[in-house]
# Entry
Amino acid sequence: MAVAGTAVAAPAGAPAKAPPSNAQLASPQIEHKVDALLAKMTLAEKIGQLMQYNDQGSSAPTAADSGAAIAVNPETRDHVDAYDLAKRGELGSMLNVIGAEKTRRFQEAAMHSRLGIPILFGADVIHGYRTIYPVPLGLSASWDPQLVEDVSRMSASEATTAGVKWFYSPMVDISRDARWGRSTEGAGEDAYLGSAMARAYIRGYQGNDLSKPESVAASVKHFAAYGAAEAGREYNTTDMSDIRLRQVYLPPYKAAVEAGAATMMSSFNALNGVPATADPYLMDEILRKEWGFDGFVVSDYTAVMELTHHGIALDAATATKKALEAGVEVDMMSHFYDTQIPKLLKEGKLSMATVDEAVRRVLRVKFALGLFEHPYARGTEVTQAVDAHRPLARRAAEESFVLLKNGGHGQSPVLPLSAGVKKLALIGPLADDASEMQGAWGGAQHLPDVVTLRGGLAARMKKVGGELLYAKGTDVLTDSQAGFAAAKQAAAQADVVVMALGESSSMSGEAGSRAHLDLPGNQQQLLEAVVATGKPVVLLVFSGRPLVLDWADQHVGAIMETWFPGTEAGNAVANVLFGDVAPSGKLTMSFPRAVGQEPLYYNQFPTGRPAGDADLTKPPAGDTRFISRYIDVPNDALYPFGYGLSYTTFGYSDVAVSRKQVPLAEANRADAKSLVTVTATVKNTGQRAGTEVVQLYVRNLGASVEQPVRSLQGFQRVTLKAGESKQVTFQLGFPELSFYNVKSQPVVEPTHYTVWVGGSSQASGQADFDVVP
# Structure
């Protein structure tokens, strides 16, 4: 193809329709079973497979006339008797039915219906079922896909004992705006890292065989670009070019599909003027034709009904037609498909072929899950955190913590806490609250299992013969300073103060958008009052997003972002504070200096008047005014993407590439995997062992489409003893070197590439090569 006057070869191996994304779903054996069953189904039974109802906490009745009904649409307040639907074989799936006894009652009714089609039970298991792990943003800060896979597998192993075989997870939306509350559910601002985490979740949930008793179907959400909501405001409009959509926002969804994701969830937002739930470009052209997706798409909660609020459908019938024809097979809670499909068919406005294709996709997943053979919960139901899973929960929390500051600004390092600390003060509203350690979407958490900070640190201080002093100080959201005096008194008596401040878990997650990113309530005033005592202070920040910590960075001795760490919160914090474990987490979202910088992300474009953003580009000589900058704060993040300290230090050297020139014909092939080898040496230059996340960044200069100042294209976790060195190796192929051109096609062009290897997005060790005609 010709791009901007430069002749390049089209990438090879790009068929009009991709091969199946999941061989198990597309197997001839399953298709044969689906064909046979579909031929026997009545219209009512078919429509039932396309409906999903919420338990809403009601108990499943033992008889259809028991009077127990389940709310369907929270706006219209329509109700259905789900148990009666199950008995008639007209109940395809349910969400949030918690407990093996309840799922079994519904399932027994379904299995005794005319055709015995099992119900698929789904739940918002986002970061654990009974044993709760760190929120996904925290898990992503581990930069450890194997850890994420293990966590996902353990979550599935617990939930399947209650009959849950479908998770509304992972959320793979790219989030570049910390104001958006659902940032807590994803992997942050970068497509490469987000794709790696997406694959890990799918491997963990689904394993290599969906039919295994401990496997669950993943539902990848929210398709698509939900994380780019304007102003970070929940459910808001998204508008972007196709280049940005494909380069930044689609890759994690695509990675999940390629990993075999069984289902997808449509997003609430409108993308470029079309609500995603009614967008055939997303659901059919991209998801099915380009990517070969074989599973089914479920709407988000009442998203089909919300097409009327978007204004693209005047009534329920039109909303149903648009959503179903776009490719949304399952209606979650709108109660539209069951009431409108018969009418649309009768009026000739909807084809039976469209209905059959939707039912086919749902049945395909149920057969692949082995639900027909094993419809009920497996084994003994897990009703509380599993002791055998606690070590993983503790390690996940430890790896998620990001040490943002330890000394500096004229202060000595505070961490790790020394053996000489005999009195430790713990202050803050999040210090002794089990519910606040869970974060948004806490699964079916069992709060008595949670180790609070107070519990974990009290046990540690008792073990070393010390004393823990505790003062709440304030609530998360309050104007009262009634507890300040007790907090200052505790601080005055202590050797070191640990402050547990941040958000309530309810402040992030869905409908958790914030216009201000400061510490909420009067926590900032409490922090300043305690710092004024002159005692060394360690600030633990609990949040589901980056917060503005500019004052703390200047005045607090040590700061560690702990997110919402889950069941083992207190033990994990104690292990890291006292140095049993050195922090190794790295940020996956940039922390702003001020909320006015949002959306903020490292892989920005240089502009025509670069301001020297974080030393990645230099401003024109002598110009300090007419450049792309703010006049009141620096452009760069307070703590950038990829940043995180440890209790040791690391140095980089000998960054090199295997070749200085790559022929275009070789590079511009979609199947090219190892075009350039990048090597670098990393050394532990400190006094103790530690783990470093080695990061590879790439920049492309001279392309026909403007490229970011640098983009992550590789990472490795490396553990080194004090003084130890290791050479790390990365491979760059077509996926890493290509970009989307103005025709929305992935290409490599004859351009100049710079690579950097280091410990954050500010990596400085570099090498260069060219792609030549």
Observations:
- Residues 345 and 351 are 6 Å apart (CA to CA).
